Known about the structure:
By secondary structure, this protein is of the alpha+beta class. Helix content is 35%, strand content 20%. It is globular.
Amino acid sequence: MSEAQKIVVVGGGTAGWMSAAVLSRALGHLARVELIESEQIGTVGVGEATIPQILLLLNLLGIDEHDFLRRTQGSIKLGIQFVDWARIGDAYIHDFGRPGRPLGMLGFHHYWLRARASGIGADLPEYSLNAVAAANNRYDDVASVGNTGICGLEHAFHFDASLVAKYLRRLSEATGVVRTEGKIVDVALDSESGFVESVQLESGDTVAGDLFIDCSGFRGLLIEQALETGYEDWTHWLPCDRAMAVPCESVEPLTPYTRSTARTAGWQWRIPLQHRIGNGHVYSSAYMSDDDAARILMENLDGRPLADPRPLRFTTGRRKKLWNRNVVALGLASGFLEPLESTSIHLVQSGLSRLINLFPDRGFTQATVDEYNRQYAYEFERIRDFIILHYHANERTDSEFWVERREMAIPDTLADRLALFRQAGRFVEDAGDLFKESSWIQVMLGQRIEPSSYHPMADLLTDEQLAEFLGGIRRLIDERSAALRDHRAYLEKHCPAIEGT
């Protein structure tokens, strides 16, 4: 049996403790995990809203979903509502479900596009159980709508990120992860390979390792400050570079979705938890002052503020290498994509999944490192394109910010997808896409991108058959949604928050 590798996680918070928990659970006796964090250094937190892939993490770690929600003041998330994005006054939802159901070889949205052209049927969200449940503040555990082929309720979570870090710390330490308190003041590199050999703490202690996970936040203590990896800047597409965050008191109803409201030079998030609402204003300092951003945020809270706005600064983009030598960067150390589609925690999770799949021996072959970087860069870039879509596809004329977002040149990968959809509602998924056809279609239609036609196979149905097909789906959705519980009632029955966890 080979000797266990020493993995050193630099930095705590959600990203650090998630890394420690996953690696210790997945690798077992193959690795010894030590996490270094300093109470002197605060954590930003990688987000309070997630996407359904979070359920894979809970399954891997053997976490009961209801216990997780109880201890993190969590609530259910069925999707994201976008307000004022295409035009002021518009609102649509990007839900986690899948509207309708396929028929034959054709996706549902082609039949819906044909029906709309013929004046038949309802709005697209009416054919999604997720969207209907979200609109009525309802939730229950629904895997599917019988054997009809209609998607059940696909969900993720809202939670308190600081409580998640504490939860994962307890889990990690129970599986043997060693926590070391201390501030890193120096990094020792091997003179020949350039690998990180050890880090020195302010106390004078030295911590050596074979593999280092950099979760040190924006500063990238190892990946950037020590290894000078470089950064790919995407602010020419996504110029928002600052945020203000503030919690406020809860109000009713407790909505099972995140809300994103477009503002003059950015957008405001609203994340409802059991004990409070998380709010933030993401904006571009080139178009708005910090004072104006704070004022707009505070004027648009649903409840009494519980703190003063906390400022954050960032540069959208990613490290040129996510894995450099024997350092893997995760969380904010790896890069930053604004949390418009709640992808921050997923990117930590997917980075860990790739690392486990490509877990190296002590040789660290370059082919392994290159493949990791290729896969991770692809995912970063496709998520980037999806976020750019929200900004680019707008018809607003109220500010220079929105006009310039509409007129800017976009990545070819995004332009090709938009051209294909505009032609006849077509979308082709790539194997590595995080956001699938249903997500792209909901956002493109919500942002007023109108296909000129639809797949010709949709004309195989007569108008009567089409109306019957759509009507049957809607009746099933309405019947199932009527039986769902109120979101607050569901939480109070299954996972009421535990105070002080």
